[in-house]
Amino acid sequence: MKSFFITTAIDYTNAPPHIGHAYEKILADVLARYQRLRGRNVFFLTGVDQHGQKVQQSAEREGIAPQEFADRVSGKFLSLWKELGISYDAWAATTAPLHKKVVQQILTDLKERDWLYKATYSGHYSVRQEQFLTDKERGPDGEFGPEWGEVVLLDEENWYFRLSKCSEWLARFLETRKDFVTPTFRQNELKNAAAKITGDLCISRPKSRLEWGIEIPFDPGFVTYVWFDALINYISFAGYGDDVSPGFETRWPCDHHVIGKDILIPAHGVYWPCMLHAMGFPDDRMPHLLVHGFWSLGGEKVSKSTGNVVDPSGLATTYGATALRYYLMRDAVMGQDADFSEERLLLRHNTELGNGLGNLVNRTLSMTRRYRDGSPGHVELPADLASHRASDAESMASYLKLMDDSQIHAGIETMVELVNRANALVDSAAPWKLAKDPEQSERLDAVLSTLILSARSAATMLLPVAPDAAHEILRQLALEALSLNTPNAPDQLPAGYRCGEPKPVFPRLELPGEEATGNRA
Ligand code: MSP
Could you read off the pLDDT of 433-442 as tens digits, one per residue? Predict the structure, then answer.
C-alpha cells in the first residue's frame, strides 16, 4: 500500500527557528498524526537546509567551520521539534553524504542527457553583497543604490539547467493537474507567474565565490546552488538514488509538500516539477503542494533584521507545547496569513480548552464518581440523549471531511461545537438535581454516560493537534480513542466501565511580565 508522504520545507540554518518555522512543522505534524489515526502508513520528512552563502558568512564571522555552524543551528531546530512533539520519521540534513551522492548522481544524469550546459553570464555584480544585480535592483533613478556598495561589470561562467525547455510542458501540466497546488487561488497565481518565466536556471556558483555547497561532480571548480540542492531532499531522503529503494516506490509521489507562500513561485511551483520532469518522472507521479500563509507580529513581517521575532521555544517553555500547538492551528485559517498575539494564545487556551473541554471532563468525571462511584449503570439512551449523540456523530463526520481536506482550523471548530453542546447538556440536564430524585436514577445514568462518550469524541478529535493533553483526557476517562479508520463498536460504555480521577489538564494560563516570557528577542 502506498504510504502517506508528508514533507515540510527544510529550514535555513543561518538563524535559529522562529514562529513561522514552528507553525509549518506543527501543521505538517498534525496532518501526519491525523493520517496515522486514519490507519495510513505515514512517512513524515522534515529537516534543515545547511548549505549556502549565509551559513558560510555567519561561520566566517564566528571563526568556525561552516559545518560546525550549521550543526549548531540545526541542533536548535532539533531540540525545538522535540519540545513541540513533532513526530517526523526521517531527518533531512543536506550535508548528509547520502544526500550529496543523490544530488551528484542527478546532476551527472541530467548533464548526460543534455539538460545542463555551461555558459558565461555578463552582468552587474555587487562586491559587497556578492551577487549579480538585475534591473529590478535599480532605484527610481536607474542607478544601483548605496546598499549594494561597489558595483562592477563581471563575466562569470556557470552551469545552467534548461528550464526553458519545460515551459510548454509546465503550462500543459498546470492546466490538467488542477489540484497540483492547494489552496486553488495559489494554483492560479502560479499559472500566471509560470507563463511569464523565461530563460534557463543558473544552478552553480564558482567556488571562488561560494565554497559551502555540493560540488558539481563533473566540474570541481563549482558547487550546486541552493534550490538544486535543497529541493532534491524530498527524494534523496525518501530512498531515491542510483538503485531506487522499494521504500521510495511506496512513498512517492509526495502527498503534501507543506510550504510557505514565499517559496511557491518559482522554486516549488516551477523549478521542482521541471526538475522532476527532466529526471523522467511522469505527470501522474508529480507531488502535491500544500501552501500555508505567513505569521506576522503586530501586522509586520516576522524578520530577524527588524528584531520582530517570536521565539517558539520561549513560548513553549512559558505556556507549554499544548497551548502553542492549539493556538497556531486554531487561529490561522489554512492558506491565509495570521497575526501572532500572546493574548489570543492565552484566550484560546483558557476559553476553548480550559473552560470548554477541560471543564466538561472535570465536571463529568467528578459527578460520575460522586453519584455513581465512577460506573454509570447501563441504560438505553432516551430520545433527547440519542439525538445528542447523533449530533456528535455528525460533528465527527464533518471533522473527518475537513481534516481530510487539511482544514485544521475548521476541524478544531467542530470539536469546540461538540464540547459546547456537551457543556450545555450538563447545564440543562442538571445531574446534581437528578441525583436527588430516586425516580430519575436511570436518567442520571444515561446523562452521565452520554457526557463521557461526548468527552471521548472530543478528546479523539484533539489527538492530532494536542496529543499529550488528549491522551491525558482519555486516561482520565479510562477509554480508548475512537477509531478514525474503521466503523466503531456500538456507542456505549464498555461492560464493567469505571472512570478515572479528574485532574486539571489545561491549568489556567496568565500573561507573565514582558521580560519574563523572553518571547520577543
Ligand atoms: N530553505 C528554504 C526552503 C527549502 S525547501 C526545499 C527556506 N527556508 S526558510 O528557513 O527561509 O523557510 C522555511 C519555511 O518557513 C518556508 O516554508 C517558509 O515559507 C516558512 N516561513 C518563514 N517565515 C514564515 C512566517 N513568518 N510565517 C509562516 N511561515 C514562514 O525557504
Answer: 999 999 999 9
